[in-house]
Amino acid sequence: MSDRTRVFLVDDHDLFRAGVRAEIGDHVELIGEADAVDAAIELIREREPDVVLLDVHLPGGGGRAVIEAVRETHPDVRFLALSVSDAPQDVVDVVHAGARGYVTKAIRSEELIAAIEKVSNDDAVFSPKLAGFVLDAFTTLAPADVDDELASLTAREREVLQLIARGYTYRETGEALFISVKTVESHVGSVLRKLQLANRNELTRWAAKRELI
Amino acid sequence: MTTPPLQVRVDATLQRIIVGFRLVSAVWITVLGIIGVVSWEADVRVVIGALALVWAWTLLTFGALRAGWLESLPWLIADLAVAMVVVALDAFDGASQGSFVGGFPTASVLLWGYAHRIPGGVGSGLAVSVAIAISESNLTGNITNSVLYVAVGGVAAWAFEVLRNSELGRLRAEAALEEERGARIRSEERAEVAAHLHDSVLQTLALIQKGSTDPSAVRNLARVQERELRSWLLGTAKPHETVIGALEAACSEIEKRSGVAVELVAVGDRDLGEQTRALVGAARESVMNAARHAGVEKVSVYAEADGDSMRIFVRDRGVGFDPSSVAADRRGIAESVRGRMERHGGSVEIVSSGAGTEVRLLMPVEEIPIDER
Asked: Cα dist. A122→A1, A94, B94 in Å?
């Protein structure tokens, strides 16, 4: 019992919370739920879960507000963002605030459980959509003449993201590139770090533009 | 919708006309006063006193018009009193004949008729008549003047009323028309929403109820409906004139027809041209093949615009096949995918194994990236 991942669930839809409870309740230890920003911050600080499953759209400030407040006092709590939408702005908001991954609510139970495990091991969870967004954002953002290594992706990181965007798992990505899963994970982690260090205003501008196309 | 109180514009115009009339009558009384002094030896002091009062009051009247006091009772009483004083002063000009008053009280009578309708007009006309009776002894002249003032007051008040009512009626009709138009637009919008929900969501819900024993069918219906409703609500449906727009339409159509989820990820976009149309066609055929033959629940599609080429990857984790020995029923690969791509200068690579299939499409494009326009 005690070696199971301790998960806290934040979502303002009762039905959705009930659905998630039923889907993952047997595989992880659900230690609490909240349906609004303030309650979530208070309870997460009190119960210190391994992973918080966090809805992007929440009354009282959105998922971003929860991540920022909790990370001030509890930097070890990890966040996996859940959203009904694939809107680039949502992704930018929570990932930039510090979420370790982003999945849509249509995700299958076994994929969600695997994602929770990954996040609890401090790995990043990149869905194909998120990989696509990151590729798009860094292509649009980074001018070719900037050689600041934070502002652009390495060739290998780009290859890894392209394979994930094509629907490859981390393991399949490693096989395709003749590298280990661990190496794939470290590339993805470094991409996540770059995304979190990137200029938020530029990301927001990118997201707004992406929305229009 | 609440109707704002109707502003009768004709009122402001009438006030200005009355004040204008006051100015004209002030000029008129001045001319008559000078004639009186010259030709029938009217007392200069009385005439100058009367004219001073007339001009001072006329100037005040302009101020009252601007301040909006004209309709107030104190002003009306003061105005009528001034008119009566001027009429009465005529009696003290020392001349046995002639009168310099002219039409000065007329503006006052008009103002009363304007503010208090026919009773106001007639009443103020009578008041002026009394002042005339006191100041003059010429009986027929007095009767003529009295009748004239009373008639002017009554008729003007009646005319003002008619003007006002006609404008009020017109404003009401306009407001009613506006309201009716708003209501019609709202009801049209509601009808459109209702029609859309009926054609889409309600139909889907009915289908889900019927097929509720088949979880994968229910899931598919829900997914397709969600995609459709979302794009309708947000108005984010991409125009089909871009490669990604066309690809998205193709994927969603295949989802609908096959029940297999198609996950599309796109980086960059291009306008749809002859070559990219062929690319989308080939991709569509590849997705269709995967959905039909791979025996999977999900197909991944990744599209990437990169410099002078556009690449699309269609991947499934299905049973796979040997691309070099395709069966007769899978001619689609040779014709619709490879043939189409190669005719337009593109290339196709198919990787298939027991772990699934990936079709890799590459098409050189000349269209400029959509981002950089």
From this structure: 21, 16, 114
